[in-house]
Amino acid sequence: MRGADVSEYVVRFSVWARVQHAAVIALFALLLLTGMPQKWPYVEASRWIIEHLGGIFVVRWLHRAAGVAFSVLLVVHVAVAIGGVLSRRTRPSMLLSVRDFRDAVDFLRYCLGWAEAPPRFGRFDYRQKFEYWGLVFGGFVMALTGFILYFPIAVSRVLPAELIPAAKVMHSYEALLAFLIILVWHLFAVLLSPEAFPIDTSIFTGKIRKERLRHEHALEYEELVGRE
Amino acid sequence: MRRRRSVVGGRHAIVQLLIVGLLAGGALAQKAPEKLRDSVAACLACHDDKQLSVQLRDGATMSLHVDPQGFLHSVHGSQLVCTDCHARYEENHPSGATFPSRRAYAIASYETCKKCHFDTYTRTLESVHYELLKNGLDSAPICTDCHGAHNIQNPHEKRAMVSRSCASCHDGVYLRYAKSVHGKALEEGGNQDVPACADCHTHHQIQAPGTTQFRLGSPQICIRCHGDRQLMAKYGISATVAQTYLSDFHGVTASLAGGGALLPQQVVVTCIDCHGVHDIASPRLMGGEAMKASVAATCAKCHEGASPAFPAAWLSHYEPSLRHAPLVFFVQLFYKVFIPFVVIGLVLQVLLHLYRVSLGR
Fold first, then answer.
1. What is the dotted CATH code of the domain comprising A3-135+185-225?
2. Does A174 lie at the interface with B, CB-CB under 8 angstroms?
3. With A200 labelled, which of A84, B87, B116, B181 sits at a CA distance of 20 to 30 A?
4. Which of A38, A173, A184 sits opposite B252 (nearest CB)?
5. CA distance B314 to B277
6. Domain limits, chain A
């Protein structure tokens, strides 16, 4: 009875991937909520948020706790990813290749009307890969600078102390960059873009409609079902 | 000729009028002191006697002598007569009444000031000094302790004098202040820009400085002068100290921590924690090496285990620039270019994508 419906879907994300994504949403939101008011402490809205979260000392505690959790998640994620690839249980489908840069150019050419069809993508398209590596790289920048700010005394014993204010500036701007990228790039891609509207649910349910897979990840689809 | 005379006559009339006016005005102006002198002289007939005194109930003797010159040259000398303040002696004087002690007399008498200085008097009721007086500490200061009684001077002209009156009780604090960069300028150079006691502690509504509330509000006191570009330029001092403090971790904490009481682990650093309070010294006069050592020692007061290199973690009230903290400057510059570059690029791509969709596939 539901057989026909079920066969329309294929599994796209493991439980582990979905849990990680949910955790990143929660931690990213909490870090933004407790971090941005510290970046602009004299804006009225910031002061309102800080006051209603229980004051600056509570806000800083929450920010550090969420930061530690995010850092742990990041390290575990990288360890699991490397472990999975080394043990040949997962494929390194997120690795960037020259093809991705060519895809980016081809997609822009398609948008400008210089190409008839968009490039055909594999398991992850170039936008998803760039965003993934942005998150991983940016995550390490945030974690590293965050810990420098968390333990300034220890850092200044082994490294030049000017790194501490530099880390503060970097932490603050990198956060703003991450926030803006998520806002204009990720949220557009998964909510507002014509392919996804009103919302791309595959990262929450773990499933993707075969039709969509064929359309958006043609190369993966062909590998899955064989050329038609 | 006639015409000319008439002009001269007109001039005469004006001059005459002026002279009459001046005489009349002079007479009026002189009338007040004359009357004052009469009334005051009547009192001074007895009270200009160095021997005149009264026996108090605690056994002490209170002199009743008033120095005529001291009163005449006081700020009230040309305006008030004795009975304006000592109203009860208008009749039946001397009555033979006495007081328990010299202090009891002063406390019983000082409220006469509020007849004219009512707003000032009400402000004192909210001060820590009145709180002490109310709780039975007789030595807590009343109007006359700081301003004097018969020889009151204009406190706006004699700032050092007001500060010295604080010293009569707070002598240790005043000695430290007098050696500070502010105190020296006031005491030795008569500088009118530097703060005297009352400029930070206020005049009449003086609050207890040991409270958290006072501490958290204290940067606002410093900023009043140290954020004043014109005033600081006069002494070659940077006026960005306030701004750099407020954008720094310490300043942000202080500005947000306000209100409730702080727990011991909730450390808030205000200007005074690094610069001191009454013993503020000019960092410029210390010399580079001494200053570095002093800053390191200051950081280590709170940052346990801070190395001598640690103060470089703080930008010394400077904005990052090529000269001061170049690394911070370059990180800042990088992001100021990189963020718009990335974000504008992404927005453009989103717009292009939508453009293509709008064309139809």
1. 1.20.950.20
2. yes
3. A84
4. A38
5. 21
6. 3-135+185-225
ipTM: 0.91
**What domain range is B333 assigned to?**
325-361
Are A65 and A73 in contact by the 8 Å Cβ rule? The answer is no
Cross-chain residue pair B327–A55, CB shorter than 8 Å: no
Chain B residue numbers touching A161 (CB-CB < 8 A) = 309-313
Nearest CA-CA distance, residue B265 and chain A, Å: 10
Rounded Cα distance between A6 and B52, Å, is 115
* Region of residue B312 (left: phi > 0; alpha: psi -120 to 50; beta: else): alpha
Q: Does A165 touch chain B (CB under 8 A)?
A: yes
Which candidate from A55, A57, A169 shows the least CB-CB separation from B328?
A169
The CB density around residue A37, as the number of other CB atoms within 10 Å, is 23
Q: Are residues B164 and B238 in the same domain?
A: no
Residues B59 and B165 in one domain: no
Verify that B43 and B147 share a domain, yes or no. Answer: yes
Q: Do B312 and A38 touch (CB under 8 A)?
A: no
- A-B Cβ pairs (cutoff 8 Å, strict): 109
Structural domains in chain B (count):
4
Candidate from A38, A160, A184 with C-beta closest to B312: A160
Nearest chain B Cα distance for residue A165, angstroms: 6
Query: Which candidate in A39, A184, A187 is best for mutational testing of the B interface (most B CBs within 10 A)?
Result: A184
Asked if A188 reaches chain B (Cβ–Cβ under 8 Å), the answer is: yes
The CA distance from B343 to A102, in Å, is: 21
Q: Is residue B258 part of a domain?
A: yes
B249: CB partners within 8 A, 6+ apart? A168
Judge whether B18 lies within some domain. no
Angle between helices B171-179 and B181-189 (to 10 degrees): 90
Same domain, B49 and B135: yes
Q: Going residue by residue through chain B (361 aa), what tens digit of pLDDT does each one get?
A: 344 444 444 455 555 544 544 444 444 443 344 445 678 888 888 898 889 988 999 989 999 999 888 888 888 988 888 888 888 887 788 887 888 999 999 998 888 999 999 999 999 999 999 999 999 999 999 999 988 899 888 887 777 777 788 888 999 999 999 999 999 998 887 788 999 888 899 889 998 888 888 888 889 999 999 999 999 999 988 888 989 999 999 999 988 886 667 777 788 899 998 898 899 988 877 777 888 888 899 999 889 888 888 988 998 888 899 998 999 999 999 999 999 999 999 999 999 998 888 887 5
Backbone angles phi, psi at A58, to 5 degrees: -65, -45
Q: Of the candidates B260, B303, B357, which has its C-beta nearest A194's C-beta?
A: B357
Q: Does residue B75 form part of some domain? A: yes
CA distances from A190 to A23, A107, A183, A197, B360 (A): 17, 17, 11, 7, 20
Structure tokens at A193: 């873009």
